[in-house]
UniProtKB/TrEMBL annotation:
Taxonomic source organism: Salegentibacter salegens
Protein's name in the database: Outer membrane protein TolC
One Pfam family it belongs to: OEP
Coiled coil (residue ranges): 147-174
Family statement: Belongs to the outer membrane factor (OMF) (TC 1.B.17) family.
């Protein structure tokens, strides 16, 4: 029988849901991996590769098959008085089938320029994805520290319950022998029941916030998941490194590449061509019969005057670049203001925490004296609970300010763009 009991005890940990541990850095990594938008970057690269392959097809020869049958109202005729000549009048119905081949030999690097533009567009769109994913980290911060706050509150409430349960045990014997009124024990037990309600309420709120975080990370998180309080170091000397700044730079590079495409569009194009065919008449218009024929050659296409179209297009691109520069400078200015505000939040919670320590120290001394008085029957349980609540209110405020300080630091790093540092 004893062996069976030991075996069952050994299986208890296996039957209890395992408690998972999750860090803030792991949350950042999960959202970049699992969020649906994260797959878009890879899809953009695949699309760009296909688009470039399509462009490269322009270097290959183009083959066309053409066929036509016509009937014309008139044909060339030769006067009958030409000496020693006997020309047959061509038929009014004529037939021709040809295979035409055109091979691009030179186009001024237009294909390479358009391929570069496709790459530039891909990088810009991928950076837009990176910006959107980065903005999600602000929502992660809010949800993560919200869960962490309720997690800390639950720990404090449970610690408070333990102290009250210890006081209940102390007064039980006094109530038993009539030295202490039963109401004293009942007041303490009622307070314990009230704390159990608060723990239940806080835990439901914690699970709700945890579910929000789970949805954001596209990961199933165990309800027993324990979030780790991060150790966040901020560096006020580093320059801002937001992904939006890189996006502005890539947008300008893309526009500069588009100017090259505009220039290359007016370069001369040299093509080789060949034609093989069968028809009546063939190339010899005087031979009124079905003949096969062919021709090969070179041709140049060069638009030497475009009425200033290229110049105007390049000016439009330059204006677009100036607009992006303005947006970039505006973003940097606003970001600098946000960094200062975030630093002000950090300093505020640092000062609050300094005063929290003093308040808690004094409340602990008051509670120690109150506990002795309660144990000696000098005060009622209600008076003891009042001082206990004062201490735990101060400790909850301290925990709140600690979490708010961590959130302020995390937001500061996100605003500054140094989450990976």
């Amino acid at each position: 029988m004893k062996k069976l009991v030991f075996i069952l005890i050994g299986f208890v940990p296996l039957l209890t849901p395992a408690q998972e541990v999750l860090t803030l850095e792991e949350c950042y990594a999960l959202v970049e991996k699992n969020y649906p938008l994260a797959t878009k970057a890879k899809l953009l690269e695949e699309k760009a590769n296909f688009d470039i392959k399509v462009l490269e097809k322009d270097r290959l020869p183009k083959l066309d098959i053409n066929a036509q049958a016509t009937y014309q109202s008139d044909v060339i005729e030769f006067p009958g008085d030409i000496p020693n000549a006997n020309f047959e009048t061509p038929n009014k119905d004529q037939y021709r089938a040809t295979m035409d081949a055109n091979q691009l030999i030179y186009n001024g690097g237009s294909i390479a320029a358009r391929a570069s533009l496709k790459n530039a567009e891909m990088k810009t769109l991928q950076q837009e994805v990176a910006v959107n994913l980065y903005e999600l980290k602000g929502r992660i911060n809010k949800n993560y520290f919200n869960v962490l706050l309720f997690q800390e509150q639950i720990n404090l409430l449970q610690s408070k319950m333990e102290q009250l349960e210890a006081r209940v045990k102390e007064v039980e014997s006094g109530v038993k022998y009539g030295a202490v009124l039963a109401s004293s024990q009942q007041v303490l037990q009622a307070e314990i029941l009230k704390l159990e309600q608060q723990v239940t309420e806080a835990d439901f709120t914690r699970i709700k916030a945890l579910n929000h975080l789970s949805q954001l990370l596209a990961t199933n998180l165990n309800e027993r998941t324990n979030l780790v309080k991060p150790n966040i170091f901020i560096n006020v000397t580093n320059d801002s490194d937001r992904p939006e700044v890189k996006l502005f730079e890539l947008q300008q590079q893309q526009l500069e590449t588009s100017k090259t495409v505009i220039e290359k569009a007016n370069y001369p194009k040299l093509l080789g061509f060949a034609q093989a065919g069968y028809g009546n008449p063939g190339l010899n218009m005087l031979e009124n019969s079905f003949e096969d024929f062919y021709m090969v050659g070179l041709k140049v296409n060069w638009n030497i005057f475009d009425w200033g179209k290229t110049k105007q297009q390049k000016k439009a691109v330059d204006i677009s670049k100036e607009m992006i520069t303005t947006e970039k400078e505006t973003f940097k200015l606003n970001n600098s203001i946000n960094i200062k505000e975030a630093m002000s939040e950090i300093n505020k919670y640092r000062e609050l925490l300094q005063s929290d320590s003093g308040i808690i120290e004094m409340r602990k001394k008051v509670l120690e004296a109150t506990t002795v008085q309660f144990q000696n029957g000098a005060i009622t349980s209600s008076e003891y609970i009042t001082e206990l609540n004062n201490l735990y209110e101060a400790e909850i405020n301290q925990d709140l300010h600690e979490v708010q300080l961590l959130l302020a630091k995390a937001n500061y790093k996100m605003i500054k763009g140094d989450l990976n540092q």
